[in-house]
C-alpha cells in the first residue's frame, strides 16, 4: 500500500529551471569535468529506481520487524542486507565523496535531491548511508593522509560504514560534560574507554567493518568543550594490506526501543580500551566533528522533506479516490454517490500546506546545496567565503524548519486519511513516527534555533543575514510575482532581527526565549524567496508545459496567501520578549 | 517511569475558585440534593487514587502488549480485567448517569475533571468507559422506558459496556452512505445486517455483555442522512429477568493495528441478522446518535487535555532534574557541572506553552460542563436554552482545539526530553501516539471546524456567537488584568466572523477553506477568556497561597504575551479566502 514515486519532474524543475545548476557546474572547473545536465538527469533517474523499487518496498516490513539484538550482534530486517549490497554496488554511499579516495565527487545540489528520495523511500535504511557519508566528510577534512587512504575507499564503497559517537547518558546537547577517555600509546595510537548512547548503526550486519568517530578526552585536557578530541575507532583493526585484523573492544551493549525508525539500530556502544587514532588536532575534536554534523544537519533536514513528499503523494492519491460528501460548490462526480474528497476545501488546505512546505523545502535544500558547492569549488576565495557564510547561516534553518514542516506535513497527510490514517495499513502513521526523530537528533531544533539567532545572526553583527537579505531584496526588485509580499516578509525578518540585536545585550534570556519562533520566521521568509523564484520560473516557462507550471503558480499563490501570514503571529510573540518565561521559579513548574 | 499525579489543587482552583461550582449546584434543585463542595472534593480525591494508582500503572504494558484477537474473541492486556472490576465497583461508569436507572447523577463540571484524570492515566482503558457512558446518554435520551429499564442499570454498573457503531468502510464522515440494513420483525424487533469498522470496544473481555448502538437503514428509508435509524443490538440477548440469553450474531471479524491506543480494541463488527431494537423514531437515528456524539466529542476533547497534562508533568520533572549547559543569565546550580534545563528559555517556552494550553483547556472544559449542567438542570427554560445554545457552539471548539493542543503539547513534552523522548522508556512517545487519534475520531477536527463555522456561527445568523461574545465582553469590562488583550482578541474574532458572514454567500468554498483556522482563532479567544478569569481569581486569592496563585498569574502573562498572538496569522490567512485553494484541478495534486 505504501508506494513512492520520485518526483523527477519537480526535481528537474528546481535543478535546471529555477537554479540552472548545469550553468554553475560549467563554470566551476572541478565540477565541469564530472557532471553536466545529462549526467545529472541520468543519476536522478537511476536514483529514482533504486529508491522507489529497491528500498521503498522494504519500509513497511522494516518497521514491523525492526532490528534484532542478541549477544552483541544486530540483525537488520529481512531484505536490508540484499538491498544494501545492490545499493553500495551502485556507488551511492560515495556520491558526494572525494574522488581522490574513490568518491564520485558529485555536487551537493544533486546530493540533496538524491537524499530526499532516499529518506522518502525509508528513513531507517537511509541512516546507515547518511551517517557513513557524513563520517567520510569529517575524515576527509581532518584525518591524516594515512587514515584517509586506509578508511575512505571502503567507506565510499559501502563495504564499511561509519558512525558518529557523541552522546553519553549525561551529555547530549552539552558535550562538554562527556567522560569518555583516550590514553596515548607509545605507537601514536590511543586507547579509548567510555560509553556512548544513541549511536545510529553502532552495530549492524550490512558491512564488513564499522568505523566509529568518537569524541573523548585526553588526559589533562581542558575542562568542558575545549578539551574534546576526535578519534577514529574501527570495529575490526585494519592490517597494513587493508584486510581486517583483530576485533577491537568496541561493542554494542544494547539497542533502544523507539517510536519509529525501527529498522535503524540505535546502539549503546561500550569502548573498553579500544584502539583509536586521533583525527585532527588534540582538543579540537568538536570543531572537526562539526564538519560532519553540519553535513548531517542538512541531511537530517532533508529527512523531513522526504517523509513529507511520500506522505503527500499518498494523501493526494487517496483524496482523489475517496468518495465522501458533496463539494460545497455542487456535485463534482454526479455519477457517484459522493465526490472525491479532493474537492473539499479543508482537504485542499491540508494538501496544499504539505505541498508548499515540501516544495519550498526542496528548493531551499537545493539552494543551500548550491552554496555548499560554491564554498567548496568556487575559484574565487571571496565567492567561497561568501557561500560559506551563507551555509553557516542557513544550515540550522534548513535542519529545523525542514523537520518541523516534515512533522506538520506527515500529520496532515495522516489526517487526510481520517481513521484510515491511524491504522498501519496505509503507511501514513509510520511516516509520522519516522519523521518525528528528525526534530530531535543531530542537535534538537531548539539548539538549531539558538545556533541561528545567537551565533549566526547576532554574534557576527548581522553580516551573514545582511548578505542573504541583499540577495533576496535584489531578486525581489525584478520579481514578476509576489514582489510586495516577499519584500514585506523580508522587512519583517530584518526589523525583528534589528530589534533583537538592540535588546539582546540587556536581556540575557532573550535569545533562548524566542529563538525557535525566530527560526520559523526566518524559514517562512526563505521559503517566500524560493516560491517567488519558482513562480518567476514557472511564469516564464508556462508555454512549455502548461499544467505543470500552472500548478507551480497556484502553489506559490497558496503559500503567499495562506502560509506566509504565520509570520505575523511569530513576530508579535518574539517582540513580547523573555519576561513572561521567568515569572515562575523552577519549583513552580 | 511513567507516573501521573492528578492535579487536584489546580482542579479545585477551577471548580471552586474560578467558577464557584458549589454555588451553582446549590441553586439547581436536582443537583443541590446530590452534591456540594465536600462531596465534590471527596469524589475528586477518590478519582485521583483510582486513576493514578490503579490505571496509570497499566498504561505502559497495555501499550506494549496490546489487545489480542483470536477466533472472534478479544483479550485485553494484563491487569485490565482486574482494574475494570475495581473501577466499575467504584461506580465510575455511571458517574454522570441518570439516578432513576442507577446512575450517580453527578454534574458534568465534575465529570470533565474526572475524565481528564482518566485519559491522563491511560487512553485505552478510558475508552471502554467513555463509550459506555456515552451510549447510556443516547439510550437515556431516546430509548423506550422498557429498554432503559433493562439496559441502563447494568451499563451504569459497568457489568455491561456500550459501543457506537457508525462507520462503514465507504462511509465515515458521510454517514448518509451507510448500507447496513434493519428488517422489521413481527414482534416489533428488527434484524440488523451489515459491517461496521473502527468500533471501539466492539469486542472485549471486561464485561458480561456488550450493547451496540448501530446506525442502519429501514426498508424504503429515504436516501442519505435522512434515512438512518438507530438500533440497540446486544451481544447476548437479554431475558425478561435480566439474565443473558442466546448469542446474537454480532461478531468481531478482526481488530485494527494502530499507531497508538493499542490496549483499546478497535473492531470490525459483522451483524448477520442480529436482533436489534429501535431507539427513538424511525429515520431519526442520526439526531439520536448525536446526543451521544456530542457527549463523546467533549470527552474526546478531554483526552487531549489529559494526555497533555501527563506529558507536562513528566517533562517538568525531567527539566528540573536533567543537567545540561549553563543558563544564559549565569550559573544556577553552581555546585553542579551544569544547570537543570528548566533554566533555559526554550525549555520554559515549551513547558509554558504546554501548561497554558492545558490549563486553558481544563478551565474551558469546566466552562462547557457548566453550560451542560445548566442546559439540563436549570429551572428557567430561557436559561436552559441559552446554555444549550452555548453548548452547541462550543462543543466543536472543545473537541478540536483541545486535541490539536493535545498533540502540540505531547510533541513538546517529548521534545523537552531530547533523544530520551523518542525511546519508549519514559512514556512520552506513547502519549504522542495515543493522543493523535483524538484529532481524528468522533468527527475529524476538520469536520468539527465545518460544524462550528457553517452550522453554529453562520447558519443561526450569529446569535450563539453573539451570546458568547456578550458574556466575554461583560467580563472584560471589569477584568483586573489583560483587559485590552482580551477585548482585542474578541474584536478580532467578531470582525473575522462578520467578514465571513458577508462573504460566505458569494464564495461557496469559503467555509470549508478557512474553517480550521477559524476554529483555532475561536479557541485562542476562548482560552484568553479563561486565562483572564483565572488571572482575576488568582489576583484576588493571592494572599491565601502565594506561590500557587503567582504561578497562575505568570502563566496568564505567558499566554497573552506568547500564545495568543497566533491569532494574527490566523486572521490574515482566513481573510485570504478560498481562491488560492482552487487554482489547481484534482489531477494536478
From TrEMBL, chains A, B:
Please provide the record's keywords in A-Z order.
FAD, Flavoprotein, Oxidoreductase
The record, for PANTHER family, names: ACYL-COA DEHYDROGENASE, BROAD-SPECIFICITY LINEAR ACYL-COA DEHYDROGENASE FADE5
Domain named Acyl-CoA dehydrogenase/oxidase N-terminal: residues: 38-158
Return the similarity comment. Answer: Belongs to the acyl-CoA dehydrogenase family.
Q: Where is the Acyl-CoA oxidase/dehydrogenase middle domain?
A: 164-272
Output this protein's name: Acyl-CoA dehydrogenase C-terminal domain-containing protein
Which residues are in the Acetyl-CoA dehydrogenase-like C-terminal domain?
468-584
Q: Which residues form the signal peptide?
A: none
Acyl-CoA dehydrogenase/oxidase C-terminal domain location, by residue?
283-451
Q: Which InterPro entries does the record match to this protein?
A: Acyl-CoA_dh-like_C_dom (IPR025878), Acyl-CoA_Oxase/DH_mid-dom (IPR006091), Acyl-CoA_Oxase/DH_mid-dom_sf (IPR046373), AcylCo_DH-like_C (IPR036250), AcylCo_DH/oxidase_C (IPR009075), AcylCoA_DH/ox_N (IPR013786), AcylCoA_DH/ox_N_sf (IPR037069), AcylCoA_DH/oxidase_NM_dom_sf (IPR009100)
| Co-factor(s) | FAD
Q: Per its UniProt entry, which superkingdom is the organism in?
A: Bacteria
